[in-house]
Amino acid sequence: MNTDREIKEMVKEKYGAIARASKQQNQSSCCGSDCGCSDVEFSVMADDYTSLPGYVPDADLALGCGLPTEFARIKPGDTVVDLGSGAGNDCFVARSLAGEHGRVIGIDMTEPMIDKARANVSKLGFTNVEFRLGDIEDIPVEDFTADVVVSNCVMNLVPDKRKAFAETYRILKRGGHFSISDIVLQGELPEGLRKEAVLYAGCISGALQKEEYLSIIKEAGFTSIRVQKKRRTEIPNSLLSQYLSLEQLQEFNNQHVGIFSITVYAERA
Known about the structure:
alpha/beta, Rossmann fold, 10 helices, 22% strand, globular
């Protein structure tokens, strides 16, 4: 079994490779480029950002599994923290909502991602968007900083999710809230699929059961928890058959078992 440290290093390595690849390369596989499954010629999870205000093509690496800013109720002047900010895709959309008087802070633990995000913000000339290298289990942000926290398909990659949500609670102002898109499971997946390293870095095998995920959020102290959006992630049989027997594949394709993208909202009291 991989230790938490090994998992983090694996994720860093994979997302470092993704940061150095193009969006087209990342869209052509299940977990970004250089992951051994690039024969799948379409994006499995990513949502389309191209019509959103603030969209920056150079920041879009096609890594998300939702549009958390769509539901985040960001107001002009808000301070927004994006956990697992990548090249800055959600940060720049958030900035368009928070405006010139708002502030956006992106957090990512992968140095190539931070470098790419900082290059993007430098080209744009924004003075109210910054990117910090850091761990979501120990967020480099002061207490009571954020009006809104967003995150897109990242929490499932964090080994200690309880600590990550406790940290999210800590950095939110009283009365603040989050909108987080993530991958969850319904029904039990075969162990081989859950533990496969390349899928872990691609947001599948690190996912929790939906009810456990929501329970961790409640344990962290959040209230008014609700699922804002839910959709099944359609994984092609050509990919699943690499990990599942025919019987397992038939069970997986049953509507009660599978991988789902959810966007969750919750408030800090």
